[in-house]
Design brief:
By secondary structure, the chain is mainly alpha-helical. The chain has one domain (7-326). Helices cover 73% and strands 0% of the residues. It is built from 19 helices and no strands. It is globular and about 60 Å long.
């Protein structure tokens, strides 16, 4: 509508991203309201100053900011469903999950945890029914089915949503990381695009997946070290945060390193507080930092890839900061 790679299209996309990022405050506030007014306000204000929520909307034109909003809405919707387990709400939940997966399939990593939490919650409170949870799961699959059928028709294979995982796996696990290998010295876009055009998408992805699996089998120790480096980079910004912090001459970059470290510490503190005081919410909130990043540990890492679970991290940080006000309150206000 606004042109391909035009200034107008950039501004429209950036404004849309900024709107999505700002709107995260709403579901985040209501989700944290289960613990009281102070945690709700703290979570919303933390998101208002969250560096990734400020920088990413205009630095990365992709689904990243929208995915963060959807993740916050999924968290809020799950809490709401546990309190009002009516069938119509489960129908909406399943349809919304399907929409979210079509936007960002990586969100599906937390789906089993959220459904399990709803089941355990319903069994504890003797409300809801396992059939409603299965209905929500079925509707989620149903929403994704048309695109899956389209992929099967076009590619003649089962591709539920996206097809690029073999290539992403190869990008994170190939001979370029082996200092003793002379098979490849660098990866160029020209070379990969040429190979893609020559082989076609199916054959290209099959070859990349085969090469990645072979590299992992032949270099297990190196791949474990690479996964560890990616895990550090996903949470702290780089695989060597302390060295890069000392070597940076930019106050902004140093501030981001400090914020990332505080985010990790405060989020862990929030989980500890949950375990000590409101254990029934632990599984729900630990799912985001535990399950969502797993696929990026074996493929590629970036703070933007972690961004969809940042709202949950902000909530955990708020819980850690306001623990004295909600730890003994078993009947916190539902704002």
């Amino acid at each position: 509508m606004f042109g391909v790679f035009t200034v107008a299209s950039f501004y429209v996309a950036a404004v849309f991203n900024c709107l999505c990022s700002a709107l995260v405050c709403v579901p985040l506030y209501f989700a944290a309201g289960r613990f009281g007014n102070r945690p709700a306000a703290a979570a919303a204000w933390l998101w208002a100053i969250f560096p990734s929520g400020i920088l990413i909307p205009f630095e990365w034109i992709w689904d990243t900011s929208l995915s963060a909003l959807l993740a916050a809405c999924l968290l809020w919707f799950t809490l709401y469903l546990a309190e009002k387990p009516r069938r119509i709400n489960y129908v909406g939940y399943g349809l919304f999950w399907g929409f979210c997966l079509l936007i960002n399939p990586a969100l599906g990593a937390v789906l089993p945890f959220l459904l399990l939490w709803l089941y355990l919650r319903a069994r504890t409170k003797q409300s809801g029914h396992v059939g409603d949870i299965l209905l929500a799961a079925a509707l989620t699959i149903l929403v994704c089915l048309p695109w899956t059928i389209r992929n099967a028709v076009e590619f003649h294979r089962l591709i539920p949503i996206r097809s690029d995982f073999p290539f992403e796996l190869w990008m994170g696990n190939n001979p370029i990381y082996d200092e003793h290998s002379r098979a490849i010295t660098r990866i160029t876009r020209y070379e990969q695009v040429h190979q893609y055009a020559r082989l076609g998408e199916n054959a290209f992805l099959d070859e990349k997946g085969r090469e990645a699996r072979e590299f992992i089998r032949s270099h297990p120790t190196l791949c474990l070290r690479l996964a560890g480096n990616r895990a550090i980079a996903l949470w702290l910004g780089t695989p060597t945060p302390w060295r890069d912090f000392l070597g940076s001459g930019s106050p902004l970059v140093r501030y981001l390193f400090v914020w990332n470290a505080l985010t990790v510490l405060a989020a862990v503190g929030g989980l500890v507080c949950l375990w000590l005081s409101r254990r029934e919410f632990f599984l729900l909130l630990v799912a985001f930092p535990l399950a969502f990043p797993l696929v990026y540990y074996v493929t590629q890492e970036s703070l933007r890839l972690r961004h969809p679970c940042d709202p949950a991290l902000a909530l955990l940080m708020a819980l850690a900061a306001t623990w004295p006000w909600w730890r003994t309150n078993r009947h916190a206000n539902d704002v």
